[in-house]
Specification:
With 317 residues, the chain is α/β, with parallel strands linked by helices. The protein has helices at residues 8-26, 32-50, 55-62, 70-78, 120-125, 133-148, 166-170, 173-185, 201-205, 226-234, 240-247, 251-256, 275-293, 298-310, and strands at 83-84, 97-104, 107-114, 153-159, 191-200, 212-216, 220-222, 262-264. Helix 1 runs antiparallel to helix 2, helix 3 (55-62) packs across helix 11 (240-247) and helix 10 crosses helix 11.
């Protein structure tokens, strides 16, 4: 397990507990009480840290190297039924954007999401979860296919942003994202969106227009990353913590502003501490959301979705 800077007190206590248990096994000394005391202290420390996380600490947890990524979620949810589909039929297959058909129980879904890598090699292969225009065009192709066959769409957001390279701009990055937002608002099939990690800027919004939008507890969703915001406002990354607070990017902030429909609870310490329970919570949320949407006619579905986004940001004096 890798530990973040603010988790170091937990690491220290866990190491003490391991040593204590080892002494108990390898010697005749009774260390039961000592181990129990360390365990109590560990539980208290975990609660104190994780129940009072700052916005920046949640950003750090959303990027934790052990955190489950899109394909981890999909593979658990679909239980071996996932069939990945490739290519945008124009340029190539973007490895940063994954999508395909899979079943939760007896219900088929079209799953689409950004995929990050686990190590240097796979991060380069997945372009660090930053999609090119062909990734967004692939996502739109799959959404249109889902619409054609009456299959609900599930999108999983986890990206530091769309790829900002010159070649991406030359191939129409801005147009591809704008086209997806436009087409998703009027897609005649249910769309369930979940932020499972980083939800940065248009890169996330390009697959983020949903009838129901949820955020996992330790994720963030905003127009710009705290580091980039800090570098624009203060000409330095040193104010990233301050920027994170000001951006109101946490799930709690987003729910308060009525920009999302709900928060998916994570195990104490984050989704990586207990992957199976984290996946189960996501599954429950998808099933519940689909039950709410499945009986709506395509016309009502589109109207409600458009009204939902039109009402965002309204201010009544």
């Amino acid at each position: 397990m890798e530990y973040l800077e603010f988790e170091l007190p937990i690491k220290e206590l866990e190491e003490q507990l391991t040593k204590c248990e080892l002494i108990g096994k390898e010697s005749d000394v009774d260390v039961t009480d000592s181990c129990k005391n360390i365990e109590k202290k560990l539980i208290k420390t975990k609660n104190d840290i994780y129940k009072n996380l700052t916005a920046w600490q949640r950003v750090q947890l959303s990027r934790h190297p052990n955190r489950p990524y899109t394909l981890d979620h999909i593979n658990f949810l679909t239980n071996g039924t996932f069939m990945e589909l490739h290519g945008d039929r124009t340029v190539k297959d973007d490895k940063a954007m994954v999508g395909g058909l899979g079943k939760i129980g007896d219900q088929s879904f079209m799953f689409i999401g950004q995929q990050k890598g686990y190590n240097t090699k796979t991060r380069q292969y997945r372009n660090f979860g930053m999609s090119n225009p062909e990734g967004y065009r692939k996502a739109l192709r799959l959404m249109k296919m889902a619409e054609k066959f009456g299959i609900p769409v599930v999108t999983l957001l986890d990206t530091p942003g769309a790829y900002p390279g010159l070649e991406a701009e030359e191939r129409g990055q801005g147009e591809a994202i704008a086209r997806n937002i436009f087409e998703m608002t009027r897609l005649k099939t249910p769309i369930i969106t979940i932020v499972i990690g980083e939800g940065a800027s248009g890169g996330a919004l390009g697959i983020g227009v949903g009838d129901r939008v949820y955020m996992m507890e330790n994720t963030w969703y905003t127009v710009i990353s705290p580091e980039s915001c800090s570098s624009i406002l203060w000409r330095s990354w040193e104010h990233k913590e301050e920027a994170a607070e000001a951006l109101k990017l946490t799930a709690i902030d987003m729910k308060k502003q009525k920009l999302i429909d709900g928060i998916i609870k994570e195990p104490l310490g984050g989704a990586h501490y207990d992957r199976e329970n984290a996946f189960k919570e996501v599954q429950k949320t998808i099933i519940s959301a689909y039950k709410e949407l499945k009986d709506l006619t395509p016309k009502d579905l589109v109207k409600k979705r458009m009204d939902k986004y039109a009402e965002m940001g309204e201010f009544k004096g």
